Amino acid sequence: MGETLHIIGGGMAGSEAAWQAANMGVSVVIHEMRPKTGTFAHRTGHLAEMVCSNSFRSDDHERNAVGLLHWEMRQAGGLIIDTADSHRLPAGSALAVDRDPFAESVTARLLAHPLVSVTGDEVTGLPSSGHWIVATGPLTSPPLAAAIRAATGADALAFFDAIAPIVYAESVDMSVAWRQSRYDKGETEEERTAYVNCPLDRERYEAFLDALLAAETAAFHSGEESSAPDATPYFDGCLPIEVMAERGRDTLRFGPMKPVGLTNAHRPETKPYAVVQLRRDNALGTLYNIVGFQTKMKYGAQTDVLRMIPGLEAARFARLGGMHRNTFINSPTLLDGAMRLKARPNIRFAGQITGVEGYVESAAMGLLAGRMAAAEILGRGIPPPPPDTAMGALVTHITGGAEAKTFQPMNVNFGLFPPIDAKGGRRGRKDRYKAYTDRAKSAFSQWVAEQG
């Protein structure tokens, strides 16, 4: 048992950690409680199931921190990014995937690996011996969460995360909506027309906003209620649309409903006041998710409010939005530089439970945890990537770089990187971002090479 790596959770982080460790020659057991013990957000028992969006966000590895993280994962032989590439959907400059075939493929590849096995038992405590990675994600089961709190002596932090609705494509009125990626981004015509756009004039926008603000919202699931409802700790990167609307009447118009970079194909002379975008959610093109429209509205209210959007008056929904508790630990206080729990160094943490946000970031932390755990089992060490790489910046942030008192989930961004000497101010930011990625690629390539 001491030579086997046990991973609790088969999401993005757990799947990636298992792949990396197995490819280094270490036997791995993935403990995934689904489908025997389900959650309200998951639909299947597949590994790496995508619960919220189907997007891995920007794939621009030259001027975007997320795209750079994609690049680094490809260099490190990442399972998640390689499978995403194989199930890619047109999404402009973003990497979006057909979510069900993606999860099925990740599951099949892991089950086919001779050093990987999967068990359906639920782990409810933190083992005192053996090599373990906890990668249970935002929906960590209550018994395991309680065990983590008992082991750390600290309360797990929590915020509330939301899911966006998915629309049947055939129910969208294309005499009103049109296909276009923002700023016509993409190398092919399919990518340049990857999004469906629904325009609103000022009157329709104001009416939509009034209905949204008046809509009844759903109660939290059992055990998820905030002790201070007026101070619910939402994650700013995934706010419900009604919460954004409460912050000001133009917040949505400068956020997920911004009209910039788009020209109405039906009325090119008229600039939309606001635009709702839909992104393809499966390879068949039969499903589209409403971009940035995470919501906690009750189901009846959702359909009424969303059908006020031009082009969606007759929309039918394959899935309506929802809200769930998202739990994470105070990693800067609890984890060492090798992602081990200081109080129990036989246990590592990876993925969203460490306080990174997003599929890509979660998988990247799984990649590092898997490699570090395998190296330890094999009797050698692996240092974390340099902090001027995307992975290095993230792991540095969660293991000590962040302020523990104000720690909350973080997406990868250039603000986490050591500063670079590049002139030009705001106008020169594209060159500055390119300098960040050039420096990171050189450092990451060397880090990978040093591991043989």
Automatic annotation (TrEMBL):
Q: What is its main location?
A: cytoplasm
Task: Give the GO cellular component terms, alphabetically.
Answer: cytosol
For activity, the cofactor(s) needed are: FAD
Can you supply a Gene Ontology BP term from the record?
A: tRNA wobble uridine modification
InterPro entries recorded? FAD/NAD-bd_sf, MnmG-rel, MnmG-rel_CS, MnmG_N, TrmFO
Checking SUPFAM superfamilies in the record gives:
FAD/NAD(P)-binding domain (SSF51905)
Q: List keywords of the entry alphabetically.
A: Cytoplasm, FAD, Flavoprotein, Methyltransferase, NAD, NADP, Transferase, tRNA processing
Q: What class of enzyme is it?
A: transferase
The organism's place on the tree of life at top rank: Bacteria
MnmG N-terminal domain residues: 5-379
A GO molecular function term, named singly, is:
flavin adenine dinucleotide binding
Among Pfam families, the record links this protein to: GIDA
Q: Which reaction does it catalyse?
A: uridine(54) in tRNA + (6R)-5,10-methylene-5,6,7,8-tetrahydrofolate + NADH + H(+) = 5-methyluridine(54) in tRNA + (6S)-5,6,7,8-tetrahydrofolate + NAD(+); uridine(54) in tRNA + (6R)-5,10-methylene-5,6,7,8-tetrahydrofolate + NADPH + H(+) = 5-methyluridine(54) in tRNA + (6S)-5,6,7,8-tetrahydrofolate + NADP(+)
Q: Where in the cell is it found?
A: Cytoplasm
Main role?
Catalyzes the folate-dependent formation of 5-methyl-uridine at position 54 (M-5-U54) in all tRNAs. NAD-binding protein involved in the addition of a carboxymethylaminomethyl (cmnm) group at the wobble position (U34) of certain tRNAs, forming tRNA-cmnm(5)s(2)U34.
- What PANTHER family does the database record attribute to this sequence? GLUCOSE INHIBITED DIVISION PROTEIN A, METHYLENETETRAHYDROFOLATE--TRNA-(URACIL-5-)-METHYLTRANSFERASE TRMFO
Q: Which family does it belong to?
A: Belongs to the MnmG family. TrmFO subfamily.
Which named protein is this?
A: Methylenetetrahydrofolate--tRNA-(uracil-5-)-methyltransferase TrmFO
Q: Which organism is it from?
A: Albidovulum aquaemixtae
Q: What is the lineage of its organism?
A: Bacteria, Pseudomonadati, Pseudomonadota, Alphaproteobacteria, Rhodobacterales
